[in-house]
Write a structure and sequence with these properties.
It is a single chain. This protein has about 400 residues and is of the alpha+beta class. It folds into four domains: about 60-75 and about 325-400, conserved putative lor/sdh protein from methanococcus maripaludis s2 fold, CATH 2.40.420.20; about 80-90 and about 245-320, Elongation Factor Tu (Ef-tu), domain 3, CATH 2.40.30; about 105-125 and about 205-240, OB fold (Dihydrolipoamide Acetyltransferase, E2P) (Beta Barrel), CATH 2.40.50; about 130-200, Helix Hairpins (Orthogonal Bundle), CATH 1.10.287. About 30% of the residues lie in helices and about 35% in strands. It is built from five helices and 23 strands. The chain has helices spanning about 5-15, 20-25, 30-55, 130-165, 170-200, and strands spanning about 60-65, 70, 80-90, 95-100, 105-110, 115, 120-125, 205, 210-215, 225, 235-240, 245-250, 265-270, 275-285, 295-300, 310-320, 330-335, 340, 345-350, 355-365, 370-375, 380-385, 395-400. The strands form five sheets. It has a six-stranded antiparallel sheet, with no helix packed on it. Strands 3-12-15-14-13-16 form a six-stranded antiparallel barrel. Helix 4 (about 130-165) runs antiparallel to helix 5. The longest helix is centred in the middle third of the chain and has 36 residues, at about 130-165. It is elongated. It starts with a helix and ends with a strand. The relative contact order is 0.18.
């Protein structure tokens, strides 16, 4: 009994003992999970912070234009009374150069964008067939002329024999008829030679006027056959750029604002900082019934190399010059697209040191695409134009010149 009691005691103590080796062998799953959750939270916070900076802290690009100030007694530029989108065209339209005879293209003397003078060679066709035909005609003419010379001598002889009554009248008539046939054949062959020479000349296509090459529509080795514009005979398209125009479709309701000789301004979409003075030179005689518009052309007075055919432009038809009265207050003008309004009145966003400032305005008369500003601006301010949604006071911005 005494030995059994210690054994039971040892068993009970063994049962209360903690097995540290077993716990050390188990992976710390709970600790690793907390590490993963912490790292994920940090990444999420970083992404949220970056998105917030891009949305609220990053500068937004805005288009700007400037308020202008005209001092008392000065002359303001004429205000646009009507504007529209159009295209640059040439006064002579486009010139399609095609062949009048069939032939294989042997050589191009020009390439796109080359400037040419009137009479310059453009395309060379294979001329061997036409040159051979011309030489054949010249040989036939030599034979006919030789026969005509022989028959002329024979007719003279018959004429003398007839005068001495040694030849009959029928023999003389036959000799003179042969001579007239030869003379007709000579005339016919001379005409055919002239036509063959023209065909040979047609194997070289030349520039009908000064201009610039817009496009080559075939390649060396291809066959060219006679045809009209946009047909198989069109080899080269060119334009005369000495006089450029811009054309625009104007609604019937606005025709009263446009007249011949009216001053206009052309602004290329590709170069919004450029301004070209123009004048209205053509009002087409027929209205487009489907669109209810009339096509109008303005001549650009001083075009440069920046203007190209078919370039899209903005055309402003200008009214009379606006001048403040002598001794009166200065005139401040702002683009209409920069002036906005809310429940408190008119305002504009001014860009100062890369941030926006909301400026209240009191506006006056409408001057085409500009407004007279009576209070709030002094001239020269950089104003945000176009879409101003989500803009706010103090917001950081970068600027681009508006159109």
């Amino acid at each position: 009994m005494a030995a059994e009691a210690p054994r039971n005691l040892r068993d009970e103590l063994q049962a209360l003992r903690i097995d540290r080796s077993a716990s050390a062998s188990k992976p710390p799953n709970s600790r690793r999970s907390w590490l993963y959750l912490g790292a994920g939270a940090l990444v999420l916070l970083a992404l949220v912070g970056l998105g917030a900076w891009l949305l609220f802290g990053g500068p937004r690009e805005v288009s700007i234009d400037y308020a202008s100030r005209i001092e008392a007694g000065g002359s303001a530029p004429a205000a646009p009374v009507l504007s529209g989108s159009g295209y640059v065209v040439t006064a002579d339209k486009y010139i399609s150069i095609g062949t009048r005879i069939p032939g294989r293209i042997e050589k191009f003397f020009v390439d796109e964008a080359d400037r040419v003078k009137k009479g310059d060679p453009l395309v060379q066709l294979d001329d061997r067939d036409y040159r051979a035909a011309l030489e054949s005609m010249k040989a036939r003419l030599a034979v006919v002329r030789a026969n005509a010379q022989l028959h002329r001598i024979e007719a003279e002889r018959k004429r003398k024999l007839r005068a001495e009554n040694y030849a009959s009248q029928s023999e003389l008539d036959s000799a003179e008829t042969l001579l007239r046939v030869d003379q007709a054949q000579v005339a016919q062959l001379e005409a055919e030679i002239a036509q063959s020479q023209v065909n040979l000349d047609y194997t070289v296509l030349r520039a009908p006027t000064d201009g610039v090459i817009l496009a080559k529509l075939k390649e060396v080795g291809e066959m060219a056959v006679p045809g009209g514009f946009a047909g198989s005979g069109e080899l080269i398209r060119m334009a005369n750029l000495t006089e450029l125009r811009a054309e625009v479709d104007v609604s019937e309701a606005d025709l009263s604002r446009v007249r011949l000789g009216q001053t206009a301004q052309v602004v290329p979409d590709a170069y919004p900082e450029k301004r070209y003075t123009a004048s209205v030179v053509k009002l087409y005689p027929q209205v487009n019934r489907q669109k209810g518009t009339l096509k109008i052309e303005v001549a650009i007075k001083n075009p440069d190399a920046a203007l190209l055919p078919d370039m899209s432009v903005r055309i402003h038809f200008l009214g009379d010059d606006q001048s403040p009265q002598a001794g009166g207050p200065a005139l401040v003008l702002a683009p209409r697209s920069a002036v906005r309004s809310d429940s408190s009145g008119s305002y504009a966003f001014i860009v100062t040191d890369g941030r926006l400032r909301k400026q209240a305005l009191r506006t006056g008369a409408n001057q085409g695409e500009q407004l007279v500003v009576l209070e709030g601006l002094s001239g020269g301010e950089a104003l945000v134009v176009g879409d101003a949604a989500d803009l706010a006071e103090g917001q950081r911005v970068t600027t681009a010149k508006g159109r």
